[in-house]
Amino acid sequence: MTLSNIILLSWIIFFIGLYGSLTKKSAVLVVISLELMFNAVALNFVSFSRFAPGGLMGLTDVTNVLSGQIMAIFIIAIGAAEAALALSIVIAMYREKNTIEFSETIEIKEKNVD
């Protein structure tokens, strides 16, 4: 598999996540779509690290060679924290409004213009 194939796969995964986060009304599906986007970015970091020996700066020590994998681990950790926070927001939204649909939870108040 070449770098261009992996980047194409990453773009496809990212845009599926972007489409889902912009079009879905359920908060859980939006969180899942955001996780897809995070994973696509992690895939890019790992693939660039794999196909650029020595890292981005051309150095040969182990730290620069594994820079993509280290960034992917950070992205996974941030994604887990984001999922936990989003789940707590979804639970609070369900307790308050008895639904997890975004379209039903938004209240728009009209201003009286005199």
Layout of strands and helices, then pairs:
Blueprint: H1 3-23, H2 27-51, H3 62-65, H4 67-97, H5 102-105
How would you portray this structure in words?
There is one protein chain. By secondary structure, the chain is mostly helical. It has a single domain, classed as Helix Hairpins. The protein is 75% helix and 0% strand. The protein has five helices and no strands. It has helices at residues 3-23, 27-51, 62-65, 67-97, 102-105. The radius of gyration is 20 Å and the shape is elongated.
Supply database-style keywords.
mainly alpha, Helix Hairpins, 5 helices, elongated, 75% helix
Compact overview of the structure:
By secondary structure, the chain is mainly α.
Gyration radius, rounded: 20 Å
Averaged pLDDT: 81
What is the structural class?
mainly alpha
Number of strands: 0
CATH class descriptor name: Mainly Alpha
Give start-end ranges of low-pLDDT stretches.
none
Q: Percent range for helical residues?
A: over 70%
Largest sheet: none
Put simply, the count of helices is 5
